[in-house]
Amino acid sequence: MSETAQTTWLTQEAYDRLAAELAERQSTTRTEITRRIAAAREEGDLRENGGYHAAKDEQGKNEARIRQLRHMLEHAEIGTPPTEEGQAAHGMIVSVEVVGAGRSMRFLLGSREEAAHAPADLQVVSPTSPMGQAVDGAMVGDEVTYTTPAGKDMSVRLTHVEPYAG
């Protein structure tokens, strides 16, 4: 994977929120799960101990999320990528017109971490998705075409780009 592909652009607020989640999972959450596992062990036969197995599952999920958060924060860039005026980029709200369909869409070009805290009426499109890759770097007025996951070619024209304050 290239270095650019590993970079996750985050707002300062998103970075702080993820760092707080990491700290919580490494301390309080980890300690609580370990306590539940120990309590379940004291109950005896682990083969038929639902509480033990549930706690072990939760422990695995917590440790996986810790690894994910560490990786993301280690490769995070805070702020928004440098762009020209009117250029679509990660961290920008992009408005497009679907060519030939007479409808428009407005979305945040951003990561799923930002999606979790975006306003409910604002769709989030990943920069690695087909549409995200097509509009990333395009300028207002540009028409770009991409292939949808269903195999259909779709063209959109960028009509407006603005920074996301999130």
How does this model look, in words?
With 166 residues, the protein is of the alpha/beta class. The chain folds into two domains: 76 residues, Transcription elongation factor, GreA/GreB, N-terminal domain (Helix Hairpins), CATH 1.10.287.180; 72 residues, Roll (Chitinase A, domain 3), CATH 3.10.50.30. Helices cover 42% and strands 23% of the residues. It contains five helices and seven strands. The strands form two sheets. Strands 5-4-3-7-6 form a five-stranded mixed beta sheet. Strand 6 and strand 7 form a beta hairpin. Helix 2 runs antiparallel to helix 3. It is elongated, with a radius of gyration of 21 Å. The chain starts with a helix and ends with a strand. The N terminus is likely disordered.
In the sheet with the most strands, the strands line up as 5-4-3-7-6
**What's the end-to-end separation, in Å?**
28 Å
Indicate the low-confidence ranges by residue numbers: 1-5
The CATH class name of the largest domain reads: Mainly Alpha
Radius of gyration: 21 Å
The residue fraction in helices comes out at: 40-55%
Largest sheet: 5 strands, mixed
Our estimate of the beta-strand percent is 15-25%
Q: Say which CATH homologous superfamily of the largest domain is assigned.
A: Transcription elongation factor, GreA/GreB, N-terminal domain
**Class based on secondary structure composition and strand pairing:** alpha/beta
User: How many helix segments?
Assistant: 5
Mean pLDDT: 85
Number of domains: 2
Shape: elongated
CATH architectural type of the largest domain: Orthogonal Bundle
